[in-house]
Amino acid sequence: MADNLTGGVIYVIAFRRLQPRIGFGWATRVIAFIALITLAANLVVTKTRTKPGPARNLLELSAFKSVPYSLFTAGTFVALIGLYFPYFYIPVYCERIVGTSADFAFYLLAVVNAASFFGRIVPNLLADKVGSLNVLIPCTFITAALSMAWVGIKSVGGIVAFTIFYGFFSGTFLSLLPTVIASLSPDPRSYGTRMGMSFGIGSFGILIGNPIAGQILNVAEGKFGAAQYFAASTMFGGAVLFAICRLAILLENGNRRNALKTRLMRRPRLEEHRLQDGHLRNYSVRPQ
What we know:
The chain has helices spanning 4-45, 67-83, 85-98, 102-119, 122-130, 132-149, 156-183, 191-216, 225-282. The longest helix has 58 residues, at 225-282. The protein has 2 domains: 1-44, no CATH class; 63-255, MFS general substrate transporter like domains (Growth Hormone, Chain: A, Up-down Bundle). The protein has 9 helices and no strands. 30% of the residues are buried. By secondary structure, the chain is mostly helical.
């Protein structure tokens, strides 16, 4: 998931350079041609490792009977409501509140995407050691805290630092979602279905988040605080749901261990009873 951020950096810079010269329409077409050429080259050289298996179910509604999976999907939806608010409004905030030039504000989009590139690689190395959900939870809390801190940033240095850190930790958030879903899927064959359902529900959070924030803020008067608090609160809500999901997993694992111990404790008694029954049968009095 890290390679798509390269396009996020290149496209932002290309659009900024091309739009004043050739207009919005042709700048968009140039970016579309770049995407067409690179994707076509990828299709030519890419080969599947294995033959595709049989078609799987589009939905697996029984997955929502799993408490951890349901909590994680709800947390994904809530967190995605506010995740992309800074991506959309950092340039406007820089011009209105910080007082930077339009060029500088626009290039911060390239900075946040570049920082997200590293955020999708470095923490994942740690996730291989301690678990994806154990890394996702603190990174989501940090992302929420950064959104809250954004309210008080009024300097150029502060907004640059915020952009770098927010891009890094939000990139970690996005890259770890699929791996957590994989760990919550007992059958590997259901992984694709479960990921599609979870991301499908989460996509509605992205759909409604920025329009709601856009209605809350007042760009003309430079009032961003309410929208910033809204975005931060949704990220905090998602982090809390992820933490509850982790507790639910611990409880489920504890219940399974207790059930296993109970079975193991009962097994010697059952074997003893079977031996005793066999002994009685062997020495039973036969009719003369």
